[in-house]
Amino acid sequence: MSEELGLSVKKTENFGKWYLEVLQKAEVLDTRYGIKGFLVYMPLGMLTIKDIYKLFENELEIRKHKPALFPVVIPQSYFKKEAEHIKGFEKEVFWITHAGKNKLQEKMCLRPTSETAMYPMYSIWIRSHLQLPLKLYQSTAMYRYETKMTKPLMRGREFLWIEAHTAQKSWDDAEKQVKEDMEIFKKVVTDNLCIPFLLIKRPEWDKFAGAEETYAFETLLPDGISLQIGTTHNLGEKFANVFNIQYMDENRKKKYVNQTCYGIGIGRILGALISIHGDDNGLIFPPVVAPTQIVIIPIYKKDTKEKVLKKCKEVLGRLKEKGFRVHLDDREKHTPGFKFNEWELKGVPFRIAIGPIDIEKKQVSYSKRDEKNELTTPEDGLEKFVKTKLDEISSNLLKKAKNLMKIQDAENYSDLKEKLKKGGFIRIPFCMKEKCAEKLKDNTGAEVRGTLFEKNEKAKGNCAICGEKAEKIAYVAKAY
Ligand SMILES: [Zn+2]
Predict the structure, then answer these.
(1) CA 45 – ligand 1 centroid, Å
(2) How far is the CA of 417 from the centre of ligand 1 (A)?
(3) Which of 473, 430, 384, 469 lies closest to 198 in space, CA to CA?
(4) DSSP letter at 155?
């Protein structure tokens, strides 16, 4: 492998360096733009992002969400209306204060999230129970001036996401909405992108600014650090009160709506996908979102060139017809070996190679990106075979990813501190008090992320941090 193409560092030896190198060398994105925390998405990154968007947008629209687009700027007067909300975000908003040489009468912020952009309009639009639920989503970029260290896709100042905001008749309807959001997340992120996650209910002190309940989707990166890749919130009537969003119910009584908002971290999901599935040779894309699912590489000498290329084109046509995203790499200036390495680096899940011997035996040579041994299969029935193998790659990727999702138990503080050194999630009996979580953060940098949503895990015994009576089982991890 040429020096330039290969990665200089192993994922297991230095994940941080491997991650930056693979992003740049596989041409997913470029981090050399002149403003810190802002990325340039290159075609491979952007094609994947568009596919991830599409997967979520389809699921949202099946469930009657409709697309909308609200302005990127929010006037200060809107933004300041909800007190907790402004407190949660004021340290990290970008303000626009001037237009040309003139100071603006009212400054505007770039949306750090869009509640205060959307809900004044919800207040104008919503009149009757017949209009509910109102379910709108937008696929956009958000802006937050991160003060911590930035890391491409994980922590930046401009990041891509989807936000879906609903207005509902009641608290129960809002709770149902939150569950629907969870169902969508599992379908896209785990079933399609092969990324497992924990569904965490955030503790009181760590809820979204202005929310009644916050649920977070958290996965684990290979460095043992947790990454929140999405959240959904039941906002109750809080924002409805502030923005006066009321409707007339069936009995002509005026009521406040209950609201939910759902944030899907598209960029972070791409970051997780690259980190979790990639290996020492580069990216590995789950077939569902691989911009190229299959690459065909011709192997020939001068006298067999015509015959081999003809066969490759025939196979290309057959696979394209079945809807696979397939590419024939017939570049003359590179050797097959160079091409093998390049497509491995770029994460193409399935490779086909065809040479004179393959043609003679009516077969193709193939290699799966997740296993990498070269085998052969008959040309007959190739379409079906490829489909089976792509499905196999998906289930292998998910299986491997689940094995990496390390969850350990700790009963006391010294045990907890010891296990935190190895990374991953640690389950502890916990008193559910904020001061206790603060102590942990000050001492170790790790955070109490919350309790598991699906199971109500009651704790026996005492809190692993303070030793007082434990209330629940909580999950602790270092987090991005
Ligand atoms: Zn405690």
Answers:
(1) 43
(2) 14
(3) 473
(4) B
Please report, for the chain, the start and end positions of each structural domain, with discontinuous segments joined by +.
15-277, 292-389, 407-477
Scanning 80-216, the segments in alpha helix (DSSP H) are 83-89, 115-125, 171-185
* Single-letter residue type at 301: K
How crowded is residue 164: how many other Cβ atoms within 10 Å of its Cβ?
27
The rounded Å distance from CA 437 to ligand 1 centre is 7
Peptide bond just before 67 cis, omega within 30 deg: no
Q: What is the pLDDT of residues 110-156, one digit of tens each?
A: 999 999 999 999 999 999 999 999 999 999 999 999 887 789 999 99
Architecture of the CATH domain 292-389: 3-Layer(aba) Sandwich (3.40)
Rounded distance from Cα 228 to ligand 1 centre (Å): 24
Q: Which fold has domain 15-277?
A: BirA Bifunctional Protein; domain 2 (3.30.930)
Distance 202 CA to ligand 1 centre (A): 16
DSSP helix/strand/coil, 393:
helix
Cβ atoms < 10 Å from Cβ of 431:
21
**CATH code of domain 407-477:** 3.30.110.30
**Residues 316 and 253 sit within 8 Å (Cβ to Cβ):** no
- How many helices and strands in the chain, by DSSP H and E? 14, 23
Distances (CA, A) of 242 to 83, 110, 141, 214, 245: 9, 21, 25, 19, 8
Sign of CA dihedral 39, 45, 50, 51: negative
Say how far apart CA 141 and CA 92 lie, in whole Å.
15
Calculate how far, in angstroms, residue 436's C-alpha sits from the geometric centre of ligand 1.
5
- What is the Cα gyration radius of the chain? 25
For residue range 221-237, list pLDDT tens digits in order.
999 999 999 999 999 99
User: pTM of this prediction?
Assistant: 0.96
Query: Distance of CA 90 to CAs 71, 80, 111, 158, Å?
Result: 19, 9, 11, 16
DSSP state of 40: E
Task: Give the span between the Cα atoms of 223 and 233, in whole angstroms.
Answer: 28
Q: Give Cα separations from 349 to 112, 295, 367, 391 (angstroms).
A: 36, 9, 9, 10
Helix (H, G, I), strand (E, B) or coil at 291: coil
